[in-house]
């Protein structure tokens, strides 16, 4: 696939005289308000998710970064490769192909942290991976783009949004750091904040998705190939991340976490890079891809959460059938905490099939009888 999109060539992207669609030129005030509200709400959500992070567990991931290393391999190894293979398979035009490749080279987005909480994933690992991938993007994004565009003879100069990467890093680490501090000082209050933040995060995802579709409806490119890629790309990323985590013998909880981190990309960073690197006429042909990718990314996340909730309910029902007479007692007692439910699911999953562990783990702690689950077992 060799193309030359320099300024003097007769590339379709450069010779196009189309004007930017009216829908893409959103009113400045509306765009500013939407951006500010989104930033504030995301900061509050990340603060609430930070309330689930424990300093001891976070330090263990930093001290033994095997899970983070696998996550980075998925983020900057698998995702760019998947993007490149999709571009080749669908024979995309160069200007559209580069939009897919840029998306594959972006770091993980904060949307993965919200979905990780809902599937009882490892929040300490999730936030560590998002932070590390954002830092690594400073060098890995230009490196991956350079390597994968060598065979294309693509002479377009890319502008890496270093300022946007720095802002994303601050918006992630500062609220999470406050959340960790609140969880350390006031663990009881942090549980309430965490529940509220999880609900607000879900509502925020829906609002942002719908608003993004409405505000950019005029700029959507009805290209079937791009829509198909934006639909299957995040799904392939989730599956590939899960399989790689499973092959490297991580626990089921970490497999879920790495899977969600792999398929969830930073959409805002991709949009910023496209706007800085290409002309308005070129943006017309590629801007719909990151928007549609973000839409399918959120839809896939909700589907994964729904599937996991059904799986969790099935495990609990199976447990009740094995312990006759516990159903009534389970209904009469209060619901379990997320930590206790996660421990229960982890034990049952390990009994079903054990992927093993490839890194030194903390000594196993005996599960004491707690709440309705353990009362059923007695």
Distance between the termini: 65 Å
Radius of gyration: 22 Å
Question: Count of DSSP helices?
Answer: 17
- Main sheet record: none
CATH topology of the domain at 31-208 and 228-313: Na+/H+ antiporter like fold
Low-confidence stretches: 1-27, 331-337, 350-378
| CATH architecture type of the domain at 31-208 and 228-313 | Up-down Bundle
Strand percentage: under 5%
Question: Nutshell version of this structure?
Answer:
By secondary structure, the protein is mainly alpha-helical.
Set out the fold topology.
Layout: H1 12-15, H2 28-50, H3 55-63, H4 66-90, H5 94-105, H6 111-118, H7 123-148, H8 162-185, H9 187-215, H10 224-247, H11 252-263, H12 267-277, H13 280-286, H14 288-322, H15 327-332, H16 338-352, H17 371-377
Helix pairs in contact: 2-8, 2-9, 4-5, 4-7, 4-10, 4-11, 6-7, 6-9, 6-11, 6-14, 7-8, 7-11, 8-9, 9-14, 10-11, 10-14
Subcellular location: Membrane
Family: Belongs to the bile acid:sodium symporter (BASS) (TC 2.A.28) family.
GO cellular component, one term: membrane
Question: How does this model look, in words?
Answer:
The chain is mainly alpha-helical. It has a domain at 31-208 and 228-313: Up-down Bundle (Na+/H+ antiporter like fold), CATH 1.20.1530. Helices cover 73% and strands 0% of the residues. It contains 17 helices and no strands. It has helices spanning 12-15, 28-50, 55-63, 66-90, 94-105, 111-118, 123-148, 162-185, 187-215, 224-247, 252-263, 267-277, 280-286, 288-322, 327-332, 338-352, 371-377. The chain starts with 11 loop residues before the first helix and ends with a helix. Mean pLDDT is 75; it is low at 1-27, 331-337 and 350-378. InterPro entries: BilAc:Na_symport/Acr3, Bilac:Na_transpt, Na+/solute_symporter_sf. GO terms for molecular function: bile acid:sodium symporter activity. Its main location: membrane.
């Amino acid at each position: 696939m060799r193309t030359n999109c320099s300024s003097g060539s007769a590339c379709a992207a450069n010779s196009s005289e189309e004007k930017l669609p009216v829908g893409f030129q959103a009113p400045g005030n509306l765009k500013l308000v939407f951006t500010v509200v989104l930033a504030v709400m995301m900061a509050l959500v990340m603060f609430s998710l930070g309330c689930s992070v424990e300093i001891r567990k976070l330090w263990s991931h930093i001290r033994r970064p095997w899970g983070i290393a696998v996550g980075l391999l998925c983020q900057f190894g698998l995702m760019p490769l998947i993007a490149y293979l999709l571009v080749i398979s669908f024979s995309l035009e160069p200007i559209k192909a580069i939009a897919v490749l840029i998306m594959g080279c972006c770091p993980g987005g904060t949307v993965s942290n919200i979905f990780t909480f809902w599937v009882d994933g490892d929040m300490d690992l999730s936030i560590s991976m998002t932070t590390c991938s954002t830092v690594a993007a400073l060098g890995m994004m230009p490196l991956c783009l350079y390597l994968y565009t060598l065979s294309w003879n693509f002479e377009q100069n890319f502008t890496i949004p270093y300022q946007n990467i720095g802002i994303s890093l601050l918006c992630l680490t500062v609220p999470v750091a406050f959340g960790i501090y609140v969880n350390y000082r006031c663990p009881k209050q942090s549980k309430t904040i965490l529940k509220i933040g999880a609900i607000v995060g879900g509502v925020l995802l829906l609002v942002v998705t719908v608003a993004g579709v409405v505000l950019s409806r005029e700029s959507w490119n009805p290209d079937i190939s791009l829509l198909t890629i934006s639909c299957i790309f995040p799904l392939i990323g989730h599956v590939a991340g899960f399989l790689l985590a499973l092959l490297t013998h991580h626990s089921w909880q970490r497999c879920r976490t790495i899977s969600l981190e792999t398929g969830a990309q930073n959409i805002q960073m991709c949009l910023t890079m496209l706007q800085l690197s290409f002309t308005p006429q070129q943006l017309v042909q590629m801007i719909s891809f990151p928007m549609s990718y973000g839409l399918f990314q959120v839809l896939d996340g909700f589907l994964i959460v729904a599937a996991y909730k059904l799986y969790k309910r099935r495990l609990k029902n199976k447990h009740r059938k094995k312990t006759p007479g516990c159903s009534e007692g389970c209904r009469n007692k209060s619901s379990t905490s997320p930590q206790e439910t996660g421990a229960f699911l982890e034990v049952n999953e390990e009994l079903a099939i054990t992927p093993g562990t490839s890194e030194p783990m903390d000594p196993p702690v005996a599960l004491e009888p707690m709440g309705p689950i353990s009362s059923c077992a007695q």
